[in-house]
Design brief:
The chain is α+β, with helices and mostly antiparallel strands. It has a domain at 24-86: Alpha-Beta Plaits. It is 20% helix and 18% strand. It is built from three helices and six strands. The strands form three sheets. A two-stranded antiparallel ribbon has the order 1-6. It has a two-stranded antiparallel ribbon with strand order 2-5. Strands 3-4 form a two-stranded antiparallel ribbon. β3 and β4 form a beta hairpin. The two termini are 21 Å apart. It binds iron/sulfur cluster (SF4). The site of iron/sulfur cluster has 12 residues, from α3. Pfam families: Fer4_ETF_QO.
């Protein structure tokens, strides 16, 4: 028996997911800061959905649209209070497509 394996990029698979934005109620927020800590700065590199970016002043900002709720940023920065992390309200957030 032969199993066919298709080469599919991770980005293409993630594109299959859908996201319902809860307008005006982001489920993750970044505490205001002047200079980001190394942990906060790391979020710009480790978030698989690329939700974190630095603005022109070097501060880290989040656009939670597209968040996959993986919890990586929560592990790195919630305990220090640098971010506040909650699950989206019911019916909002990521809608995974499996398969
Ligand atoms: S939970 Fe995961 S996908 Fe969502 S913002 Fe944090 S690191 Fe990114």
């Amino acid at each position: 028996m032969t199993i066919a394996i298709k080469n599919v990029r991770v980005e293409d698979k993630l594109f299959q997911n859908r996201y319902l934005v809860d307008v005006g109620r982001p489920h993750i927020t970044v505490r205001p800061h002047e200079t980001p800590s190394p942990s906060l700065l790391a979020l710009t590199r480790v978030c698989p959905a690329k939700c974190y970016e630095q603005n022109d002043k070097g501060q880290v900002e989040i656009t939670a649209d597209g968040c996959m709720e993986c919890g990586t940023c929560r592990v790195l920065c919630e305990a220090s209070g640098e971010i506040e992390w909650n699950y989206p309200r019911g019916g909002y957030g990521v809608l995974f497509k499996f398969g």
